[in-house]
C-alpha cells in the first residue's frame, strides 16, 4: 500500500486514526447476518457467544440477572443466597441490593431504598437517582409555578376566576388595537375600559388615541398621555365638542394653547389633570376665569406653576365646585391661600395631598373647615410629618358632621387621645357613621381611638385602613370581624397581628379583602378560605 | 313550571338549546327567565339580535363560566375569542351583562 491518500472526509480520517476499517465492519456484519439466517433455519441455538463478547469489557461489574432466570425455583434460591450475602460486609466490599453483584462500599454509596444495612453499587445508585429525578422534578416545578401564580393573582387582585366576557373581549381588543380602525357601537363604559387597559400597558399612542375621539363622546379618560404631542391634545376638543368629563393623566407635553382650547369646551364640567407642568400661570388664570364657574369637579396633580394668585382666583371663581383635589403643588409654600378655599360653599369632597411642608398649618385647615366643614362628605388629608397636630382633629370634630369618608394619612403628630375625643364627641352628638376611615401611618393612634371609632361608625364602616398603627392590640382587631358592613381592611405593618386574628376575621360575613403586608407573625400560616388575604408570605 | 331547557334564536334563524342554568349566567336573561312579567319565563324561548357566529361564542362562554366559577385563582384554561369578532361579542356581552 502506498502512503499517498486522496482527500478524505473528517469522519473517515477519524475512523482511520482509531483503527476502524469500513471493510472489516462490513465483513463482520455479513458474517453475523449469515449466522443469524443459519440459526433461524436450524431452530433455537444459543446466542451466548455474542452476549459474552459484548460483556467482556465490563466483566468486573457483570450483571447477575436473577430476573432473567427462567426457572422460578432456581431464581428463588439465587435471590435468597444473594440477600444473605448482603449482610456479610467485610473488608469494605458488599453485595449490591439492586443487582446482587459484589462491589466496594464507599462514603458515596447510597443506601438501598427498602432494605436496612444494604447499599447500592454505583451503577444502581445512578439509575435510582435518575428515576427519582424523573418522578419528582416535573411535579415539583408544576406545584411551584401554580403557587407562584396564585400568589401573583392574589397580589394583583385577580380573584375573579372566570372573568366576565366583556373583560375578555376588551383584553382581546386592547391586544389588537393596532389593527383596528374604528371603535363603534360599544358603550362608554366599555370604551373607557379599553382606554384604561391601553394606558396600563402603556400602549395609548397618538395613532390609537384617535379611535376614542368621536363626536358623541361625553366622558373621555386617557390615563397615560405621555406619548401625546401638542397637536394630539388639540384633537380632543376639536373632535369631541360634547365632552362633560375629561381625564388626562401624565399629560406632560400639554401646553398653553391646549389649555385654551379645552377651556372652550362648552359642556365640560369635570376635569382631571395630572402633571401638566408646561402650562404657564397666565394660561391657568385664563382657564379658571373662563371655565371656573362651570366646573363641578377639579383634580390637579403635580404642577409647579400654580401659585397663590391662581389658587385665590380658583377659590373666588369656581363657586360651583363640588369636588376639589389638590396634590403636589410645589410652588405653594404658604398656608394662607388655602384659607380661601373656605369660599367654595358647594364643596362636598376635598382632598389635600402631599403639599409642601410649609404649606400645611392647623390654622388654614381650621379656616376651611370652620367655613365649609359641615357640607363635606369626603375629607382626605395626606400631610407631611411634623406639620398638622391635634388641633386639626379638633377642627374636624367640631365642624365636619356629615362626613362619610375620612382619611388622615401620614399624620404622625396626632395622638390617640385626640382621635378618641373626636369619635366620642361624634357619638354623643349623633353624627352619622363613616363608611370609609383611614388612619394610615398615624402611628401614635392606638387601641382606644380605634375602639371609639368602632363604637361610632362600626355599623356603617365598609372600608378601614389602620396601616402601621402599631399600638393597636390584637383583641381590637378581633372585634373587626363583627362589623356588619366591613368589606376591605388594611392592617399591614401591625406587629401584634397574629394568626388567630386572621381566623377570626375569616369568619366575618362581609369581609372580602384583607391587606396584611409586613405582619411578621402571619408569615407561613395557611390561609383561611372565605376572605382574600393579600401580602402574607 | 319553568322550562328546564331554553331555546335561544339568533337573528339569522339558528336555534341553540341550552340547559336553564347556563342561560341564567347572563344577568339580563336571568331576569327575563325569572320574572313572571316576561313572556320568556313561560315559553323558555329567547331571541338575540346577533348572528349565530356571535351567539355560539356567547353560549361557549356561558358554559365556561359555569365550569370555572368556583375555582380559586385564575384558571389555566383561557377563553379565546378571535380578534375580528371581539367587538361584536363585546356588544352582545354588554347587553347580556356577562
Automatic annotation (TrEMBL), chain A:
Residues 95-130 form the DNA repair protein rhp7 treble clef domain. GO terms for biological process: SCF-dependent proteasomal ubiquitin-dependent protein catabolic process. Keywords: DNA-binding. It holds the Pfam family zf_Tbcl_Rhp7. It comes from the Eukaryota. It comes from Starmerella bacillaris. GO terms for cellular component: SCF ubiquitin ligase complex. One of its GO terms (molecular function) is DNA binding. This is UV-damaged DNA-binding protein. InterPro entries: Leu-rich_rpt_Cys-con_subtyp (IPR006553), LRR_dom_sf (IPR032675), Znf_Tbcl_Rhp7 (IPR056451). Residues 47-56 have a biased composition (Acidic residues). Residues 22-59 are annotated as: Disordered.
Automatic annotation (TrEMBL), chain B:
It comes from Starmerella bacillaris. The lineage of its organism: Eukaryota, Fungi, Dikarya, Ascomycota, Saccharomycotina. This is Elongin-C. Keywords: Nucleus. GO terms for cellular component: nucleus. Belongs to the SKP1 family. The keyword Amino-acid biosynthesis does not apply. SMART domains: Skp1. GO terms for biological process: ubiquitin-dependent protein catabolic process. The keyword Nucleus applies. It is found in: Nucleus.
